[in-house]
Amino acid sequence: MKNIKFLLVILFISILNPDRADSKSRSSQKWAKTDIQFWLTSPTANIHFQRQNVSLKFGDVATALTTIDIDESKTFQVIDGFGNCLTDGSAELIHKMSPEARKSLLQELFATDGNNIGISYLRISLGASDLSRNCYSYDDLSQEESDFDLKKFSIDPARTDLIPVLKEIVKINPSIQILASPWSAPTWMKTGHNFKGGSLRKECFEVYANYFVRYIEVMKQEGIGIDAITIQNEPLHPGNTPSMLMLPEDQLLFVKQNLGPAFLSAGVKTKIILYDHNADKISYPLSILRDPEAAKYVDGSAFHLYGGKIEALSDVHNEFPGKNLYFTEQWVGAPGNLPADLAWHTKVLIIGATRNWCRNVLEWNMASDPVWNPHTAGGCDRCLGTITLSGDSITRNPAYYILAHAAKFVRPGSVRISSNIPEGLPNVAFITKEGKKVLIVLNDSSKMVSFNIGFKGKAVQVELNQGAVGTFIW
């Protein structure tokens, strides 16, 4: 009777969540002897980030097939990681889970062992984003008040959900890199005194720089290191809720005269990253980088891709090769479409952004509920989370598989290496700190494709279904 009950439980788990149930069985199966580990997502075959039990051995090159040649002697940028924006709404939903379910989910997302996907980089909002339940800053006052000494500064709004979830994540991955971005300054520092729109008042440049310093110091006291900040999320989009217009000439002066000197005076090592908006306006960060006094404080520039082309980022790199590039946000629109989303995000971001010098790639919100809440009134109401949470119930969405193919294997400190791009097979290759090679390939053609992976004069033949993504590790 006990055996029957056990089998019924296993059957019930498999019906509810076939991918995860299958992953449990995979962890104990015997794998074929192989030179290359192969993980696959193939929407047409209903395969969702699963290791393939196949034998892939390097041998003589089959010249009749297209070959992706890997050359580890040609190296490019170091990779900081792949991950998500942990919005307030995401943290709220995760924090509301039962302790056991939350622990299991965070292990799956941030650990690297077994079938866990190993997210290694997070972006959080400095104050509210449009995927917070309400607008707030860390120094909210009435319209008539001001606080130039920051005596009323408090990160208490983050203590409810965000900080507790971050602390659990840090326990799993103490080296997680965290980028913080404000959607708005406190309203008393802005023209218009409103969370939506307006600009930073010139007389508040200095206190706003001190606001960043105070935030970084207080978060450090909580055991949460802020590796980098961007100065303003989407500074040319003042129509979001919250938002703030910051023209390039204002960002230049703020960095040169206020933020850079404030960080230097306080001994803050957090990186300052420019722009944080679309690739169609690369003139914005370039205009600041061309000012030597401002540029000396700047680590690099951050981009989204709701406008422009990813290749424009290489133009920024080519003019300022000593400054870093980051890809900090791209949404998946609800309800999601795995074949289309997987192909576009893999080709343009995981492959395209890293081939154009980005040190990271971040998908937008980590979690939403089944109707894409929470968000502010006027905030994004169609932002599909990497996961959907309904209590303890988890649905894994397209961004989960997009990130998994890179985050699990291309660990921080990996370096992009050279690979050619045959027609219909966009790809990118890396070497990890341990010397493992990682190749991510999308079959962007209309049919199944067989091809070679070539390395050091040898090759191995593999195949990918139409629209499939493969990660190969050796």
Describe what this molecule looks like in 3D.
With 474 residues, the protein is of the alpha/beta class. The chain has two domains: 34-76 and 418-473, Immunoglobulin-like; 80-412, Glycosidases (TIM Barrel, Alpha-Beta Barrel), CATH 3.20.20. The protein is built from 13 helices and 20 strands. The strands form three sheets. It has a nine-stranded mixed sheet with strand order 2-1-20-17-16-15-3-18-19. It has an eight-stranded parallel barrel with strand order 4-5-6-7-8-9-10-11, surrounded by six helices. The two termini are 46 Å apart. Mean pLDDT is 94; it is low at 1-18 and 21-26.
Task: List key phrases describing it.
Immunoglobulin-like, alpha/beta, TIM Barrel, 20 strands, eight-stranded parallel β-barrel, disordered N terminus, 474 residues
* Major beta sheet summary: 9 strands, mixed
Cα shape = globular
CATH top level of the largest domain is Alpha Beta
CATH topology of the largest domain: TIM Barrel
Please specify the SSE layout and strand pairing.
Blueprint: H1 2-16, H2 18-26, E1 37-42, E2 47-51, E3 67-78, E4 81-85, H3 88-95, H4 99-110, E5 121-125, H5 156-159, H6 162-172, E6 177-181, H7 205-221, E7 228-230, H8 248-266, E8 271-278, H9 283-289, H10 292-295, E9 300-304, H11 312-319, E10 324-329, H12 338-355, E11 358-365, E12 367-368, E13 387-390, E14 393-396, H13 398-407, E15 415-419, E16 427-431, E17 437-442, E18 449-455, E19 458-464, E20 469-473
Parallel strand pairs: 3-18, 4-5, 4-11, 5-6, 6-7, 7-8, 8-9, 9-10, 10-11, 12-13
Antiparallel strand pairs: 1-2, 1-20, 3-15, 13-14, 15-16, 16-17, 17-20, 18-19
Helix pairs in contact: 1-2, 3-6, 7-8, 8-9, 12-13
